[in-house]
Amino acid sequence: MKNIIEVKNLTKTYKRLKAVDNLTFEVHEGEILGLLGPNGSGKTTTINCILSLLKYDAGSISIFGREMQPNAYDIKKEIGVVFQEVAVFEELNVYDNIDYFCGLYIQDKKVRKTYIKEALELVGLEEFQKFYPKQLSGGLLRRLNIACGIAHKPKLIFLDEPTVAVDPQSRNNILDGIQTLRKKGATIIYTTHYMEEVEMLCDRILILDKGKILASGTNDALKALAHIEEKVSIEVMDLEETYIEKIQKFKNVEEVSYQNNLLFITYKKGNNNVTELIDYLKEEGIHYNKIYSERPTLNDVFLELTGKELRD
Hints:
Blueprint: E1 3-14, E2 17-28, E3 32-36, H1 43-50, E4 58-63, E5 66-67, H2 73-76, E6 79-82, H3 94-103, H4 109-123, H5 138-150, E7 156-160, H6 168-183, E8 187-191, H7 195-201, E9 204-209, E10 212-217, H8 219-223, E11 230-236, H9 241-248, E12 253-259, E13 262-267, H10 273-283, E14 288-294, H11 298-306
Parallel strand pairs: 3-8, 3-9, 6-7, 7-8
Antiparallel strand pairs: 1-2, 1-4, 4-5, 9-10, 11-13, 11-14, 12-13
């Protein structure tokens, strides 16, 4: 499989802080790679180094098989970047904003006109061409930001938190647009804190922390790393502490908690865990209502690897 990006032994230090620590990975052609990590994990520094927006101490970076340099404009014209912070011109309307950014790469006006039309359709802004940014909702504004970054049809796209703080409709539109971009052949680097988006979109995932890769692989491969095997929640009214203590002593139980009449149980391993629980509740004459069982999620794996403490 052809590599679009190759990062080898990348190291970047800020004074005494090693933000990126001997990082090595590749991005395959046509895939969506999820780059995950808590705040301060090194994601932004890594991306800025790849884009030659930041000097690094050691290592090498190649894109499209060529060494990436600050003046590698032939490479940069094939890259689209959509940062988390919206960056558009307030004095230009929607159409002219897209036209400006597309014009940085596409000089032919007829070609550019076609590209702008396709970008408007991709993000669903056809009816808002004459609107100015201040007239747009947060979701529409973020969709404009994406259109400006991808209108020139780049082969490689960086998307940094593209759905943050948007309404569900805009979020669905953005996610559909990302899948369309991949179907048309784009390679995408995707960062987000929404794990369900990663599970939905990404072919492979890298989890970073403290500048190192903690785990990498497909969604299923990462879930297989989870310490827990099953999570169960069950609605039980006024459950006494003695029953909770007994459930905690079940052979495969990892953790038990009870709040707002909901009993939560995580199991380390084993089969028929739910059956054992239901049999116990029946034996004790404890009435229950809804019961749910699910496998570990990507979010569970992420928290196991990076910890649950708050980050700045």
